[in-house]
Amino acid sequence: MKFRRSERLIDMTNYLLEHPRQLVPLTFFADRYGSAKSSISEDLGIIKETFEQRGIGILQTVPGAAGGVKFRVKVPEEEARLLVDELCSVIASPERLLPGGYLYMNDILGNPQIVQRTGRLFASAYADKHIDVVMTVATKGIPLAYAVASQLNVPVVIVRRDSKVTEGSTVSINYVSGSAKRIQTMVLSKRSLAEGSNVLIVDDFMKAGGTVNGMINMLEEFNAHVAGIAVLVESENMEERLVDEYLSLVRLSDVDVKEKKISVNEGNFFIKKKHKM
Question: Where are the domains of the chain?
Fold first, then answer.
C-alpha cells in the first residue's frame, strides 16, 4: 500500500509519540511506507522542526548504519510554569481540607489531563538520564508513576505495604516513617526489579521523606540505583528531611484548619533544573 506524504507524516508522528526514547531505524519507516530513505529523512526533518517549535520534544538523529531517530519529551519552561501555577491554585483551595489537617488529593490524581501533563514534566526533567524503571508506593502515586513511565517508555514497579499471593516471593523491609516516627513495612516482588536497575522514584506527597527513604533502602536489597526522585507535593515545615536530592512541583508551607487556609508555593523544580540536578 502506497502512503501519501500527509499520511506518512501523521503516522510517523503518532508512532514516535507512542515510542519515546526508542531508537527507530530509518529502514523501519522506509519499509513501513514503501518509501525511499531520502523521503523519510525529509519527513523526519519536518516532524523534528514542528516538535521543537511547538514545545513537544526533541527528535534526535543517531548517525551510522545502526542509527535512526529517537524522540525525547521536552517541556518548555513557560508550559512548566503554567502547570505549577495551576497546581498551586488548585491545591490552595480550602475546600480540599479534611479533618486533622489532611488534604484531599484524589481529584487531582484522578484527573487524566493534570496527571499526564505532570508526567510529561517529570519525564522531561529526567529524559537525559538512564532510567530502567519508575517506582512508586501503593496506592495514590500509581497514576502519576504510570504517566511518567509512559513518557520514558519504561515499566512501573509498585511497592506495597503487604505481600500478595499473586506476586510470588517477595523482599520485605522495615522503615521508619519520617513524620509519625512509626516502624512500617514495605514489600516488593522479587520478579519486579532486575538487579542493577536504574530507578526513578515517583511519589504524590512527601512529608519528611520516610516513605521515599524506605524505597531507597528497598533498592539496596536489589543492588539497584536511584536515578532520581520526583514528588508532586512536598511539606515544607519539617524539622528533619530524610531525603535531600529530589524534584518537587508544589511546596505546602502551612495549613490553618481554623481559618480554612492552605498556603502553597512552587517547589524546588525550577531551582534544581537551573542547577542541572
Answer: 5-73, 77-274
At the top level of CATH, the class of 77-274 is alpha beta
Cell of 54: 511547538
- Sign of the Cα pseudo-torsion (74, 76, 77, 82, in order): negative
For 116, the enclosing helix (H) or strand (E) is helix 112-125
Sequence-distant (≥ 6) Cβ neighbours of residue 111 within 8 angstroms: none
pLDDT in tens, the chain (277 residues): 678 999 999 999 999 999 999 999 999 999 999 999 999 999 999 999 999 999 999 999 998 877 899 999 999 999 999 999 999 999 999 999 998 888 999 999 999 999 999 999 999 999 999 999 999 999 899 999 999 999 999 999 999 988 888 888 999 999 987 666 789 999 999 999 999 999 999 999 999 899 999 999 999 999 999 999 999 999 987 667 889 899 999 999 988 888 889 999 999 999 976 655 4
The dihedral built from the CA positions of residue 176, 179, 181 and 183, taken in this order, carries a sign that is: negative
> pTM value?
0.93
Print the SS3 string covering 215-237. HHHHHHHCCCEEEEEEEEEEECC
Cα–Cα nearest to 201, from 186, 191, 216: 216
Cα 64 to chain center, whole Å? Answer: 31
Please state which of the four CATH numbers 2.60.40.10, 3.90.180.10, 3.40.50.300, 1.10.10.10 is assigned to the domain occupying 5-73: 1.10.10.10
5-73 and 77-274 have identical folds: no
